[in-house]
Design a protein that fits this description.
With 301 residues, the chain is an alpha/beta fold. The chain has three domains: 1-93 and 195-215, D-Maltodextrin-Binding Protein, domain 2 (3-Layer(aba) Sandwich), CATH 3.40.190; 101-181, D-Maltodextrin-Binding Protein, domain 2; 217-301, Double Stranded RNA Binding Domain. It is built from eleven helices and 13 strands. It has helices at 11-26, 39-42, 45-51, 59-67, 125-134, 147-155, 166-171, 205-212, 217-232, 278-292, 294-299; strands at residues 3-7, 31-35, 72-76, 88-92, 101-105, 119-121, 139-141, 161-165, 180-181, 196-201, 241-248, 251-259, 266-274. A five-stranded mixed β-sheet has the order 2-1-3-10-4, with helices on both faces. Strands 7-6-8-5-9 form a five-stranded mixed β-sheet, with helices on both faces. It has a three-stranded antiparallel β-sheet with strand order 11-12-13. The longest helix has 16 residues, at 11-26.
Length: 301
């Protein structure tokens, strides 16, 4: 049986889907990638920013998966809503790429070298809020488009710097553009950042088994904890919630952050627990953030 993999048509999405295809092929499975245009691809940038709808970049792909016209879907895991449609499951999470955020700048400027009022581009409220907490004087500006489009806008002078995910730059060969890596303590990543999510139908036994061969249990446990925290706080990729988990032997350490869009308030919580119970860990950290006032911050968006 040929495994048809559904993918967006962006360079990063195709890199990710082709990576999965090649590993399935190496394991003896015939596979090919089919491009599916999503609602997020069709919306103009202004409408996309104002939509507030979760999953705009995966909706049509999941519909094709549920209908059986594709057998497997590959997503950037941070883009996946925490609740999947009925009949679909997260079959595998391969080994995670670097989850950190990075600075790309003009003139070789590092983060400490950016002057008050300099223009920093980021499409993420999570990044903007944490960056403003660190440096209140920066001018945060939204930036849309694929990675190459964002880099071109930087080069053309629309911004003094960009903050992007390290993983996307590395996967597309733009690692040399990175000026500085933010530590997890400085800028906590989005839940699932740097990880791929391989989605199948629950009833697709052979396909799900093939996908499961690509699973990396420590990465899968980490993102389960992060997504449990996100789900408990009612968030998606467009809210100022950050979560990062790392495994250490049989245990899992989870860090959670909630920040006001202005960066004025920033809440942190940390906890550790058995790697076999990632959802419980996510709920513990979410409860800690709630006790500190997370609901008040998130309700004021």
């Amino acid at each position: 049986m040929k495994i048809i993999i559904g993918s967006r048509g962006s360079a990063l999405a195709l890199w990710q889907s082709n990576w999965v295809r090649d590993r399935l092929a190496a394991a003896g499975h015939e596979a090919e990638v089919r491009v599916i245009r999503t609602s997020g691809d069709r919306l103009p940038q202004a409408a996309l920013a104002a939509s507030g709808v979760k999953g705009l970049f995966i909706k049509e792909i999941e519909e094709a998966l549920a209908a059986g016209s594709i057998q497997l879907a590959v997503h950037s895991l941070k883009d996946m809503p925490t609740d999947l449609p009925p009949g679909l499951k997260l079959a595998a999470v391969p080994e995670r790429e670097d989850a950190r955020d990075v600075l790309v700048s003009n003139g070789g400027l590092g983060f400490a070298g950016l002057a008050s009022g300099q223009r920093v581009g980021s499409s993420s409220v999570r990044r903007q809020s944490q960056l403003l907490h660190l440096r209140p004087g920066l001018k945060m500006l939204p930036v849309r488009g694929n990675i190459d489009t964002r880099l071109r806008k930087l080069d053309e002078g629309e911004f003094d710097a960009l903050v992007l995910a390290a993983a996307g730059l590395a996967r597309l060969g733009f690692g040399s553009r990175i000026r500085e890596y933010f530590s997890i303590e400085q800028l906590c990543p989005a839940a699932g950042q740097g990880a791929l999510g391989i989605e199948t139908r629950e009833a697709s036994g052979p396909v799900a088994e093939a996908a499961a061969s690509l699973d990396h249990p420590p990465a899968h446990a980490a993102v389960r904890a992060e997504r449990a925290l996100l789900r408990a706080l009612g968030g998606g990729c467009a809210v100022p919630i950050a979560a990062y988990a790392a495994s250490a032997g049989e245990s899992l350490a989870l860090r959670g952050v909630v920040a006001s869009p202005s960066g004025e308030r920033l809440l942190r919580a940390n906890a550790s627990g058995p790697a076999t119970e990632p959802e419980k860990l996510g709920l513990r950290v979410a409860d800690d953030l709630r006790r500190q006032g997370a609901d008040e911050i998130l309700g004021a968006r």
